[in-house]
Amino acid sequence: MKLKLGLACSTLAVTAALAGTVPAVAAAPPAHATNAASVQGPDEAISISTDVVPRFGEVDVQWTAVGTADTTGPTQITLDLPSWMTFGSLMLTDEQTYTFSYTISPDGHELTALYDGTQKPGQTEILQARVSSALTVPPGVITATVSNPGDRNPANNVTTAGIGGETAPPPVIPSQPTVTGSDISTGPGAGGSVVTLSGTSLANGMVLFGGTPATNVTCTDTSCTATAPGGLGPVPVEVVTPGGSAYSPSAFLYTGPPPPAPPAPSLSFLAVASGPAAGGNAIYLGGANLAGGQVLLGNRPAADSSCGPSLCSATVPAGTGTVDVRVVTAGGITPVVTADRYTYTG
Q1: Which positions of the chain have pLDDT values less than 50?
Q2: In this predicted structure, what is the pLDDT of residue 42?
Q3: Cα separation of 213 and 209, whole Å?
Q4: Are 234 and 251 in contact (CB under 8 A)?
Q5: The predicted structure's pLDDT at residue 298
């Protein structure tokens, strides 16, 4: 994705555009970046450009999948500002066929965003962040990182940009992380266990329990502390950083009942009701409780399924006749509704 910092997923290119009149500083190229066309599978790359004025501005982060395969699951983006800049409000600018959350550090200088959805090769997403700056624009550096468990090319997952006349230092690509141990390895199925993992090169880490992101994550270079989500049975514990990913040597065992299932999904509209027998066209569905869902046409899963709480997008598979369109989530499957049918033509 390409992340543009004004944010991005698969090879990311980030461009930070801060409204103003100061001449933009040229973006630093990713260190040791490889040609995206040579990366087989998901890939994320990141770059930044900036334009800063006193008192306020905007940071636009754009991410575009540039590998040869979909980028799926959780993607984490971090953005570090100089001490004289702080984050304000944030806004995503397209259809919300994904889930999105973010945290801002208490001092207002660091943003950690979590995007969970599917991005097709070439697909771009944009996050706009309002920022406040000092009354003058002293020299400083903005650093952005991107992490996804399927990323095949960590060499382009970190970038820097200089502002206020500062020359951007070369981005430092972190080493492959390692996880050497965990202080606890079992907890209630409802979640809530606070787990500390030890290892190396864990900074800017995202912690996953069986693929589900943990909350309240704080990582240094040698440890990560995180609150486990709910789950069932033994699951692997993974730390994903801009330098790669690593698993804990022991699984985490959930004991007792799992958390309640999420509410059952439902559909209220189908934006595209027909298309060619060969498939390949985009389809959009709206409803409730759709997050993380898989779109089905008849008994065929649609490609590129990506669902937010109330909207799904997918690519129609090949087929014939008229079929029911449904969405499967952890909460169940949407009921068959006559209005939610798709007809193959030709």
Answers
A1: 1-38
A2: 76
A3: 6
A4: yes
A5: 95
Strands 86-92 and 124-132, sheet pairing: antiparallel
DSSP 328-343: EETTEEPPP-TTSEEE
H or E segment at 149?
Answer: none
Q: What is the CATH number of domain 2-163?
A: 2.60.40.290
Distance linking the first and last C-alpha atoms of the chain: 35
What's residue 129's pLDDT? 80
* Residue 161, both tokens: 């940009």
Tell me whether residue 160 is exposed, middle or buried, using C-beta atoms within 10 angstroms of its C-beta: 0 to 12, 13 to 18, 19 or more.
buried
**Among 217, 91, 196, residue whose Cα is nearest residue 147:** 217
Q: Give the CA angle between residues 8, 167, 104 to the nearest 5°.
A: 45
For residue 325, count other CB atoms closer than 10 A to its CB: 25
Strands 186-188 and 252-255: parallel
Enter the pTM of the model: 0.84
pLDDT at 25: 29
Three-state DSSP class for 306? strand
Instruction: Tell me the residue type at 244.
Output: G
Contact 315, 280 (CB under 8 A): yes
Contact criterion met (CB below 8 Å) for 237 and 181: no
In the chain, the amino acid numbered 258 is P
Residues 6 or more apart whose CB falls under 8 angstroms from that of 253 comprise 185, 186, 187, 233, 234
The pLDDT value recorded for residue 32 is 32
Length of the chain: 346
Architecture of domain 178-255: Sandwich (2.60)
Side-chain half-sphere CA neighbours of 222 within 13 A: 0
The segment(s) of the chain belonging to CATH 2.60.40.10 are 178-255, 266-345
> 266-345: which CATH topology?
Immunoglobulin-like (2.60.40)
